[in-house]
Amino acid sequence: MEPFPGRLRDERLQVQQLVTLADAQQQIDAWREEYHTACPHSFLGHLTPKEYQEIGQGKTIAEAA
Question: How far apart are CA 43 and CA 30, in angstroms?
Fold first, then answer.
C-alpha cells in the first residue's frame, strides 16, 4: 500500500496555505480526485486506481475512460 497520508501531506497540505477548515477540505478533495484518476501507480501495473477498479469490474481501459 502506498503511503497515502504522507503523499497527501507532502503534495498538498505542506504546499498550499490553508486558511479555513472548508479550504482544507476542498484542497483534500481535489487532491484525492487527482490521486485516484490521474496518477498511475506502479503496484497497480501503472494504472490509476480508477482504471484498476474499472478493469476489476470487467471493463477495458477504453471503457473506463
Answer: 23
